[in-house]
Write a structure and sequence with these properties.
The protein is mainly β. Helices cover about 10% and strands about 35% of the residues. The chain folds into 5 domains: about 90 residues, Immunoglobulin-like (Sandwich); about 90 residues, Sandwich (Immunoglobulin-like), CATH 2.60.40.10; about 80 residues, Immunoglobulin-like (Sandwich), CATH 2.60.40; about 100 residues, Immunoglobulin-like; about 45 residues, no CATH class. The chain contains 4 helices and 36 strands. A hairpin with a 5-residue loop joins strand 26 and strand 27.
């Protein structure tokens, strides 16, 4: 019973104690041999026999084992099958009854040795040229990196297409350059993003870290060229300076600039109108040492500040800034101003080439300070890196102590007044045409089932409400008319009179005789009370 349980336990835990198969990795080294290894994680416990074959080939045992502590850990075999170089490659490890097979795609597993014969030279074209050698270079792409004065490597690295074994650095300075190159299989012949780069080549150097021969040149105001070579420090020796434009003869500096009797610069005329923006070449010579450099003058033109800068308040109520600059049709400008010594208004205001004025619309009467500067226009060779001149001398207009708020235009109060006048005029017109009526309507209370005095519904003032209370009794009014006794008795008129109750008041309303058509007759009769005709009013 115990034996059965033990056997069952071993069967269930067999996968835990089973040996993990070794993983074989292969690289094609420099297109010369295949290097396979199976000790990536750890050294194997047993000696495996290694077999390999390409598709449609017979299996071959490893001709040259690589070992560690007498244990086989890899294999190195020739890679001469040109036709099968990038075919599937099969491997097999065998030990006793155990065998482990694996298929490898060699296209992504090619690694070259670093390039050789790496050299760097300063060419006649004033450029730095890096050259190297790599096998099968038509199938190999490369990558170059360099750094200056031991600073970090310049990035990104610079690619070089397959079939090319050189690289050019344009117009290097005379600082210390350190360069390296590496290679990998080109993607056109099977390589890809996962292709392996070779190690970097041995570095090559050019220049000197302590060199003080870096020449910088400026075209000053289109009148002369100012070159200097003391940017970092004063040179230790006196260099002779030469310069020339393309297809021109080499000339020595006509006027040196010096510091403590050491030449540090050169000033020479700039009168070659046709060559003004051509490449300019310089050369420093001292004994057997010479340093050449090519300069692009388009980006190195610097003007003097504009002159004759004036500001005027025009008849159009605008502020006009004017100035003068040489070759103004080739020069763009920039204006800046500030109010009451506050920070300069930004961004600065551009002025196109050919224009030498600027307008500030409807200025306030505060203190204005204005300046202008210039540079070569991009249409004639300038660009973003072109040099601005220094700012001109400032010009002023207005007064800082003005009682008018500098942030308010002179037209602002005028517009406010005009708007108020128009509003008042509209109100008067509406009132004149009885388009506006103000009616006060009291709130009508909600009716109640209980009867209340109607006067309580209205919200009258107390004094006005008391005036509606009457204490006098009303007086009834009656009108009396005399009627004839018989129809035969003729009478030209009748007399009517009105009386009222004499209790509280006495009112008599006689009939106006003038209203009768004729005069009364002398014959009258007395009317009895029963025959009275009452008319109540």
């Amino acid at each position: 019973m115990m034996a059965t349980r033990l056997l069952l336990f071993l069967c269930l835990t067999e996968h835990v104690f089973a040996k993990e198969p070794p993983d074989v990795e292969c690289l094609v080294m420099h297109l010369e041999y295949i290097h396979c290894s199976w000790n990536k994680d750890r050294t194997p416990e047993v000696n495996y026999t290694f077999y390999s074959w390409f598709s449609y080939e017979t299996t071959r045992e490893c001709p040259s084992y690589l070992s560690e502590n007498s244990i086989n850990t890899g294999c190195k075999q020739p890679y001469l099958q040109t036709g099968d170089r990038f075919s599937d490659f099969n491997t097999k490890l065998v030990h006793g009854n155990d065998s482990y097979e694996k298929k490898h795609e060699l296209k992504e597993r090619v690694k070259f040795n670093p390039p050789t014969n790496v050299t760097v030279q300063y060419g006649l074209d004033s450029n730095l040229w890096l050259n190297w050698t790599q096998i099968s270079y038509r199938k190999v792409e490369s990558q170059v990196r360099y750094r200056i004065n031991n600073k970090p490597w310049m990035k990104p690295y610079y690619p070089v297409s397959a079939g090319i074994q050189y690289y050019c650095i344009n117009l290097p300075s005379s600082a210390l350059y350190e360069l390296q190159v590496r290679s990998k299989l080109d993607y056109m012949v099977g390589g890809g993003k996962e292709s392996l780069w070779s190690d970097w080549s041995e570095p090559v150097f050019w220049g000197s870290k302590n060199s003080s021969t870096d020449v910088e040149c400026l075209v000053m105001h289109l009148e002369y060229i100012h070159c200097s070579w003391n940017k970092d420090r004063t040179p230790e020796v006196n260099y002779t300076f030469y310069s020339w434009f393309p297809y021109k003869t080499l000339r020595e500096c006509p006027s040196y600039l010096s510091e403590n009797s050491i030449n540090t610069g050169c000033k020479q005329p700039y009168l070659q109108t046709g060559d003004r923006f051509s490449d300019f070449n310089t050369k420093l010579v001292h004994g057997n040492d010479s340093y050449e450099k090519k300069h692009e003058l388009k980006e190195r033109v610097k003007f003097n500040p504009p002159t004759n800068v004036t500001v005027q308040y025009g008849l159009d109520s605008n502020l006009w800034l004017n100035w003068t600059q040489i070759s103004y049709r080739k020069v763009e400008s920039q204006v800046r101003y500030r109010i009451n010594n506050k920070p300069w208004m930004k961004p600065y205001y551009p002025v196109s080439a050919g224009i030498q004025y600027y307008c500030i619309n409807l200025p306030s009467s505060a203190l204005y300070e204005l300046e202008v500067r210039s540079k070569l226009d991009y249409m004639v060779g300038g660009g973003k890196e072109s040099l601005w001149s220094d700012w001109s001398e400032p010009v002023f207009w207005g007064s800082k102590n003005s009682s008018t708020d500098s942030s308010m235009s002179v037209w602002t109060p005028v517009m406010y007044g005009l708007g108020a006048f128009i509003l008042i005029l509209l109100v008067m017109m509406l009132l004149h045409h009885e388009r506006i009526r103000i009616v006060f309507i009291p709130v009508v209370p909600k009716p109640s089932p209980k009867l209340h005095n109607v006067e309580d519904w209205f919200q009258f003032p107390n004094g006005l409400k008391e005036s509606f209370k009457y204490n006098e009794r009303p007086c009834p009014v009656r009108e009396y008319c005399q009627v004839p006794e018989s129809d035969n008795e003729s009478s030209d008129c009748s007399t009517c009179s009105g009386t009222a109750d004499q209790t509280d008041c006495s009112v008599s309303i006689p009939v106006n005789e003038s209203d009768l058509p004729t005069s009364c007759s002398s014959s009258t009769s007395t009317v009895s009370p029963e025959e009275e005709k009452q008319v109540s009013v």
